[in-house]
Queue: 2 jobs
Job 1
Amino acid sequence: MNIIFFSPHFPQNSTYFCTHLKNNGANVLGIGDTPYESLSDPLKEALTDYLHIKHMDDYDEVLKAVGYFTHKFGKIERFESLNDHWLELEAKIRTDFNIYGTKLDFVYDVIHKSKMKKFFEKCDVTMIRSVKDVTYTKAAEFIKLVGYPIVIKPDLGAGASMTSKINNDNELNQFFEQKPTEVNFIAEEFIEGNVLTYDGLIDRDGVVQFEATHLFDQSIMTVVNTNDHLHYYCLKDVPPKVRHAGQNILRSFDIKERFFHIELFESKKNGNLYALEVNMRPPGAWMTDAINYSYDIDIYKEWANMVVHNQVITPKEGTYYTAYASRKDHKHYVHSHEDLLSTYSPYLVNYNRIEDVFSQAMGNYAYQFRAETFEKVQSIVSFVQDEMRN
């Protein structure tokens, strides 16, 4: 199997996916904007061939690179980056070269939040009320319907960038005074609650072969907008209502042979789940590693097994709760790094500095730890993020 991995050098965990593709017998062909000599040794070992291009968003350059690999190695059977940023480019390449996977005629439905909603309508999942192509007039009419607060965010894009919670008329006026004219926004009613994810692997027959759930009990929007630190938990069991909603959504979108990351709101008011968004990629923010620690597996390996052999062999139940807790450089914490190591070393499984490009949401430095009870990881999060008071 000839597999082109686009941007194999970034983010860093792309190397693990490439390594396991090679170990499964695939020819892994890399395209990236980093010179070959600057790639890590493990990545060089994983790649059968590599083309350095100057501009990864220059479609003609990418097209020529894929054409070169096709001429040299024959039929290209997969083109992947596992990255939201390149989703449209991937689909265009697959369409032009007739490569298996999501094509251009479908990708616009999963990169625009407003278009996702027509698929959610087919599911047994409550939708968040919203209005697309939002203007001041549309927003004002929408607020008459749902009341304050509302959330306004870009229709296209991932994460919490340019996402705002609007609490009153003054904030609404301020938003539209500063709104970038080139960005289309969607307005949604605000749901007070937690985010529960449905993450995993679905094979080319449309069967979910692995599943996991992460819990975010703080607002990512607030984390980004206030430059706060982040924490979240990988649960050792998938709640039945999350499984039910997630699998309905997967069937509605007809997603196959993908890593998936579905986000749902759980209302604090009534416990209902609301469909938020679907991503056809691995979960970010060290969540793939959290899955490995909770389930004692190698999810990178299992993804490669699925792509090459259409099989996944993993335990279906987790053993641990795994937590992620970050710190921000501008904050002052009660407990030092050394305190953490000496107090909780039996529970710590990973700690490292975060790449600057991800630090606004993920923090500047982060810790991962696991325990058999949820209460234990909660207590360690509190220890990690305990701030000094003035």
Job 2
Amino acid sequence: MNGPALAVSLGDPAGVGPELVCEAWVRRDKEALPGYFAVGGAGLLAAAAKTRGLAVPIQQITDPAEAIAVFPHALPVLGEEDTEYRPGQPSTDGARLALFSLTRATELAINGFASGIMTGPIAKARLAEVGFHYPGQTEFVAAACNIAAQDAVMLLAGPRLRTVPLTVHCALADVPGLLSVDLIRNRARITAEGLRRDLGIAQPRLAICALNPHAGEEGRFGDEEGLIVAPAIAALRDEGIDATGPHPADSLFAPHARETFDVAICMYHDQALIPLKALDFDNGVNMTLGLPIVRTSPDHGTAFAIAGRKQADPGALIAAIRLAGEAAFRRQGHSE
């Protein structure tokens, strides 16, 4: 990258985020990672690295501009904020550091002092105790960017599959009532533009999932396909977007079918995340499309049960840093 480094928020300090941020730095050359700096937690990161058996020199910086020069020989950490490293034992102090780190990293990206952000996994219940009132980090970052929640699209990306859930954190029983032609059209447009801008896919192919088994089988198992999904697809095609469907979800993710699309637009959370995690659990990335900044996150949680035990796989976090760097590079006017 020719621009500033990526900002990395710590996530919950008691989870696997800190140790994996250190592991990623150790593998920076092997994985060809862009320069990044952590926001807060210098002592925490040093302790996490030691627990994992990693030799990671930590260098505190006072200006994000220092990160690129520091990154080749030490993990840059911005700021004095810190907390005790207690893996697997989430605390209020840890939640405060997690919220500070997320807030500051987001501000730096919005103001151009970071090329994008990679957010570590959080514990939402703990964050709620210290004033975090969002369903997740996606909604928090969107609000900070003055983007309406419905215009921030969650893309799950792995080496073998990309999916977008149209509805996310809601009861399954609520999904049919939340679907609409406008919802599908809006999120599909944002997805197509995001694939072009951030992933470099010139002509994105969107496969739109059905809601019901067998795509409703002509109304026998529900009429949402005929009343909502098909009209939305027709409207998207009229706009020049390569959208197909409604596709029965039980066959869309087979190997031969995956070759026919660049992203699957899914009706609800599990329809999108089950195939992605089945195929690419250790390399899955959560990327937010529709924002003025680049934001990615590993597609896994805090994993408190294995934090500090040298068991957590760094693949997803490394993939999230790499994808953020690639997207930032493209936004700087480059192409691969």
